[in-house]
Amino acid sequence: MPLPYGADALEPHIGSETIETHHGKHHAGYVKKTNAAIAGTPLADAALETIIQTAADEKDQKLFNQAAQVWNHGFYWHSLSPKPDKPDAALGAAIERDHGSVEALLTALSEQAIAHFGSGWVWLALRDGAIVIEATHDAATLATGPAVPLLVIDVWEHAYYLDRRNLRDAYVKAVTEKLLNWDFANRNFASAAAWTYPS
Length: 199
Ligand code: FE2
Fold this sequence. Notes:
Shape: globular
Number of domains: 1
CATH superfamily: Iron/manganese superoxide dismutase, C-terminal domain
Strand content: 5-15%
Number of helices: 8
Bound molecules: fe (ii) ion
Number of strands: 3
Oligomer: single chain
């Protein structure tokens, strides 16, 4: 998947070297290993979500890790934007209903992302009709449900170490305050009712 913006588009919050390494080495590495694992198997031409679900069902942790990381990173690139918008009326109303205000939600999202232990992902999601914050460890994903992902923040160290060294909080605050792609979240929220997971 190509980046939806240039490698330097998120500066000064996320540097181009970070994006080039993250997308060109880490994400590309997961794609390469997934493709190698499915080559010549019945999953060779399957949708990525089907590959993830099949790997989970068959307890193929090795394939699951690679394929889920492919999906998570694709979702992450689209969760960031050099020109962040705001929640639209529908999503804004749902956030106010469930969290009081957008500011309160962002504070909670930031706190969870900073506090998440080890590698993983912190998601804004829709679960049973409510706007929730969910955390997953390592490659674990919402790609196949049960919650519908709206946005995600990568909290693996490779997402910020070149820019921030060990200071995850500086990276998380920059993402939540300057880079979240609310237009993407708005579209995901609007289509959530019609969202179907692979069976
Ligand atoms: Fe990552």
